Amino acid sequence: MAYIETVDYEKSDGKLREVYDHLIDTRGKLADLHQVQSLDPEAIIRHMDLYVHLMYGKSPLKREQREMIGVIVSICNSCMYCVKHHSAALNHFWKDNNRLGTFLRDFTKAELSEADLLLCLLSEQLTIRPAFEGKEEMIRRIKDKGLDDRAILDATTIIAYFNFVNRLVLGLGVEGDDKEQSGYTYD
After folding, report:
1. What percentage of the chain carries pLDDT values higher than 90?
2. From CA 69, how far away is CA 117, in angstroms rounded?
3. pLDDT, tens digit, for every residue of 34-75?
4. In this structure, what is the dihedral angle of CA atoms 50, 52, 55, 57, given to the nearest 10 degrees?
5. For residues 128 and 153, what is the distance between their CA atoms, to the nearest angstrom?
6. Alpha-carbon gap, residue 124 to 128, rounded angstroms
């Protein structure tokens, strides 16, 4: 139960109903995260535009790398709502429950490529200690593994985005439920 008033689908009308219908048509479901923003439909639109751009737009990062980043940030922030959603999306690509379980417990043991491991380390450090020493060296190492400046920009933006969303979820009491996990489109 959110800490603020929300408008569910049945009570929505006008612009909010349009936004909700669009989300259902394009994402497969209406998430509790969207409903917690229901008092400002324009914010939902702008939020989803950013989300779609970062997670589905053109990028040197693969979709699974983007989901991996989201999961690491969400674990660091103890945002179980986002961990559940984005680990399900990550496993859509991996199709390996054992690997996912290992990743969720300790990503350093999840048989990641060196580049992916560095992206996870960057995600963890920028979330826990944004001003951490060694950032420049880590970015150089990421480049050495074949990721370019655009990939690093995209990774950093996704890290920042998930920190934003985690704070919305945790700050406003978004809980979600198990039924909310199924029915989303990930591709």
Report:
1. 90
2. 10
3. 999 999 999 999 999 999 999 999 999 999 999 999 999 999
4. -100
5. 19
6. 6
**Residue ranges matching CATH 1.20.1290.10 in the chain:** 63-172
pTM score, two decimals? 0.92
Rounded Cα distance between 91 and 101, Å, is 10
For domain 63-172, the CATH superfamily is AhpD-like (1.20.1290.10)
- Overall residue count recorded for the chain in this entry: 187
* Tokens matching residue 145: 């593994």
CA distance 63 to 89: 9
The model's confidence at residue 27, banded by pLDDT at 50, 70 and 90, is: confident
For the chain, percent helix, then strand, then coil, each to nearest 5?
70, 0, 30
